[in-house]
Design a protein that fits this description.
The C terminus is likely disordered. The protein is of the alpha/beta class and about 250 residues long. It has a 7-stranded mixed β-sheet, sandwiched between helices. The protein has one domain: Rossmann fold (3-Layer(aba) Sandwich). The chain is globular and about 50 Å long. Helix 6 runs antiparallel to helix 7.
């Protein structure tokens, strides 16, 4: 982490995440994981927040912040309910055990605390079109190098409905969905929105028989057809920790 720490993500992602986080009252202790070179950690320190940084390896230091080596696939080295918020910028698409990570975040965040995370938006119409033509999503445009596995690889790209499931099954509830920006080229796909909505709404209504889940599906449909999900480059989700994980979901020990 240097004086010129890079924001190793898409443009404006840190700004949007910071805006969501700093708008909250009572956020005094925050974990930045993975912290990379510490660009977002520095923002926390400058804001007067007790900043904790975590990553698989230290890349330097940020004065005023603590650092812990963290494996996002396993138990995190923090006490239960220790943080007011966890910030995970472009981290979940790199890990092998995303469900376990969600449960660990639930454990280390206090009730009512926040998990803010970003990930490449493969639910955007532009990314769906690339998948249709090539079998690869935007931000993951070619096969991964299986001969040289790396923690930098996007091994767990996730759609919005899948991300919502992981969060809600892990004891969080989505409060807001945003995006870092909408590139001009993304608006080319806007004419496809009415047809996509009609087909998606019809399938959800036809395939789901459970009345309670149908209610959830209406909310999911609204979220899926928000500007952020349809056209955003990077998806940014703000989720609140519930009092407990859903039945059958055990936190790591």
């Amino acid at each position: 982490m240097s004086d010129a720490a890079r924001e190793n993500t898409s443009r404006n992602t840190h700004n949007v995440v910071a805006g969501l986080l700093f708008a909250e009252q009572g956020v005094k202790r925050v974990l930045d994981l993975p912290c990379g070179e510490g660009a977002f950690t520095r923002r926390l320190v400058e804001r007067g927040i007790e900043a904790h940084a975590g990553d698989c390896a230290r890349q330097g230091t940020i004065p005023g912040a603590s650092f812990e080596v963290c494996d996002m696939n396993g138990p995190l080295p923090f006490e239960k309910g220790f943080f007011d918020a966890v910030v995970c910028i472009d981290g979940i698409e790199h890990i092998e055990r995303p469900f376990d990570f969600m449960r660990e975040c639930h454990r280390i965040v206090r009730p009512g605390g926040l998990l803010l995370l970003s990930t490449p938006n493969i639910s955007a119409l532009r990314s769906r079109w690339r998948w249709f033509l090539t079998g690869f999503h935007n931000k993951c445009k070619r096969p991964l190098n299986e001969g040289s596995p790396s923690p930098l690889n996007h091994i767990s790209m996730v759609s919005f409905p899948e991300l919502r499931y992981r969060l809600h099954a892990g004891g969080f509830h989505i409060r807001s969905v945003a995006a870092n920006r909408t590139k001009l080229i993304s608006w080319i796909y806007a004419p496809a929105v009415p047809l996509a909505w009609l087909v998606t709404a019809g399938v959800l209504r036809r395939e789901e028989k459970d009345a309670e889940q149908r209610g959830r599906n209406r909310e999911i449909l609204r979220q899926m057809f928000s500007k952020a999900v349809l056209f955003g480059e990077t998806l940014i989700v703000e989720a609140e920790r519930a009092n407990r994980c859903r039945p059958g979901r055990q936190e790591l020990l």
